[in-house]
Amino acid sequence: MVDFELEGEYVELNQLLKLAGLCDSGGAGKALVAAGDVRVDGVVELRKTCKIRAGQRVHCHGVEIRVVPAG
């Protein structure tokens, strides 16, 4: 499990995957989402720039990212 501290109101899904270290770039993050490899709160998410907010959980390739408020 990875805790990601959210600095603003939201982060785009493809950028979250990059910032959490699951891929090397936002483009690679978009490819993971397009392939159906990413779930948000247990549901497959196909919107590459979906807004992820504090309290949500993202799963990809066996890794869970827990989005928590900064501070």
Q: Based on helices, strands and strand pairing, what is the structural class?
A: alpha+beta
**What number is the mean pLDDT?**
96
Strands ordered across the widest β-sheet: 1-7-6-3-4
Order of helices and strands: EEHHEEEEE
Rounded to the nearest angstrom, the distance between the terminal CA atoms is 19 Å
Strand content: 35-45%
Q: Characterize the quaternary organization of these chains.
A: single chain
Percent range of helical residues: 10-25%
Characterize the main sheet.
5 strands, mixed
The shape is globular
- The low-confidence runs, each spanning 5 or more residues with pLDDT under 50, are none
Q: Number of DSSP strands? A: 7
Number of contiguous helices: 2
The Rg value, from CA coordinates, equals 11 Å
For this entry, give a set of tags.
single chain, 71 residues, alpha+beta, 5-stranded mixed β-sheet, two-stranded antiparallel sheet, 7 strands, 23% helix
